[in-house]
């Protein structure tokens, strides 16, 4: 049964899609998707291919746009300057590939900063890029559709979690009325909106969604004055759980059967890579991996045992993430405490992939997902 809502209230699938009997026409046009978050600036350039897409170029850099935002409520000059330098690189890649179809978005840091509009004008003046600030609901929708191909046929209730730098989005979806073979397609249709009008096909139903204004960067900043590593971690985890009280499924716990969590974020993929013992990150082994609550807890215990110095030098965590991994792990542990499961699916995909899917679907260049 679905939890009841209070009255007041190149991303590729794990297994390649079978080729159709008649070849789907491929488009030569390239698409760009850029995600400017609180901590990172990331971009993909891709070409549509069947029901998926093929990545031809990418960019990722930790720019720390939200540094100091918790204290001052504004984007600092230094963080804006770092970000514009990264965006200049993105602009050159876009020009190199002659990309004309693009969507370049900013999320939580710009939603909260008092000087966000000034920053958007600054970006346009210095780079010519049409950066836009999107609302939390659209960010959640795009994360959901990027994970559609990871939904298992037996899944009747799915929780999609996107742990970002400045916020964490959770979306609970009821698929009980959707035939198993149609569930991935039903998830994709949520890209048009969480409140789907009645139609001829059974629809996925969003039980509830929430954007918690805490991500790996903002949560870390709130507990920077707590010196004890284990105490800071415990405080962060319980504080994040308190923010879930208004999320309708919070009090219901995990369904007994047909329940799946899909986690998309650098935190989740880093935990998965450490669980696999990878010395060098391998997306093909991480994306779509299924982990249990016990396996996740074991990795987090290892992180705590390493301490700050050990995490800094551990190649599995990486220099860009070692200061943020414990706040991300605190969020992940809180979620596993509320909804323990042996089926957390790891998604090395997210907002950028969702942006690409949405653009390509709007242009009619994607084959409908099988």
What can you see in these coordinates?
This protein is α/β, with parallel strands linked by helices and 370 residues long. Helices cover 39% and strands 19% of the residues. The chain has a six-stranded mixed sheet with strand order 8-7-6-9-11-10, sandwiched between helices. Strand 6 (157-163) and strand 7 form a beta hairpin. Helix 2 (77-96) packs across helix 4 (116-127) and helix 5 (136-146) crosses helix 13 (351-363). Residues 1-25 have low confidence and may be disordered.
Give a short summary of the structure.
This protein has helices at residues 69-72, 77-96, 108-112, 116-127, 136-146, 183-189, 216-222, 229-242, 266-276, 283-286, 293-313, 325-338, 351-363, and strands at 31-36, 40-49, 52-62, 101-106, 131-133, 157-163, 168-174, 205-212, 259-264, 290-291, 344-347. The protein is of the alpha/beta class and 370 residues long.
Per DSSP, what share of the residues sits in E-state strands of 2 or more residues? 15-25%
Number of domains: 2
Termini separation: 26 Å
* Quaternary organization: single chain
CATH architecture of the largest domain: 2-Layer Sandwich
Mean pLDDT: 88
């Amino acid at each position: 049964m679905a939890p009841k809502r209070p009255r007041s209230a190149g991303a590729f699938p794990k297994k390649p899609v079978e080729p159709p009997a008649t070849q789907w026409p491929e488009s030569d046009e390239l698409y760009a998707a850029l995600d400017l978050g609180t901590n990172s600036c990331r971009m993909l350039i891709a070409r549509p291919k069947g029901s998926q897409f093929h990545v031809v170029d990418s960019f990722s850099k930790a720019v720390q746009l939200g540094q100091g935002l918790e204290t001052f409520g504004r984007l600092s000059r230094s963080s804006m300057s770092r970000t514009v330098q990264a965006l200049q690189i993105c602009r050159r890649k876009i020009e190199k590939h002659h990309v004309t179809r693009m969507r370049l978005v900013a999320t939580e840091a710009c939603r909260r900063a008092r000087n966000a509009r000034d920053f958007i004008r600054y970006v346009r003046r210095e780079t010519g890029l049409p950066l836009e600030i999107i609302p939390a609901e659209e960010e959640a929708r795009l994360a959901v559709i990027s994970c559609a191909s990871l939904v298992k046929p037996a899944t009747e209730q799915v929780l999609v979690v996107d742990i970002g730098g400045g916020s964490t989005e959770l979306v609970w979806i009821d698929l009980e009325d959707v035939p198993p073979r149609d569930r991935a397609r039903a998830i994709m249709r949520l890209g048009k909106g969480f409140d789907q009008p009645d139609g001829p096909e059974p629809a996925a139903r969003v039980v509830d969604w929430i954007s918690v204004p805490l991500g790996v960067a903002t949560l870390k900043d709130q507990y920077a004055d707590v010196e004890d590593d284990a105490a800071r971690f415990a405080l962060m985890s319980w504080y994040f759980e308190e923010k879930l009280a208004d999320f309708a499924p919070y009090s219901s716990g995990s369904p007994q059967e047909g329940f799946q969590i899909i986690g998309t974020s650098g935190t989740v993929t880093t935990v998965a890579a450490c669980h696999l013992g990878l010395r060098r990150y391998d997306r093909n082994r991480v994306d779509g991996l299924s982990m249990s609550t016990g396996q996740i807890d074991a990795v987090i215990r290892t992180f705590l045992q390493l301490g700050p110095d050990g995490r800094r030098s551990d190649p599995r965590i990486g220099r860009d993430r070692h200061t943020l991994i414990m706040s991300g792990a605190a969020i992940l542990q809180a979620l596993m405490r509320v909804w323990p499961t042996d089926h957390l699916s790891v998604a090395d995909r997210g907002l950028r992939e969702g942006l690409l899917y949405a653009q390509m679907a709007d242009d009619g260049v994607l084959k409908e997902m099988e």
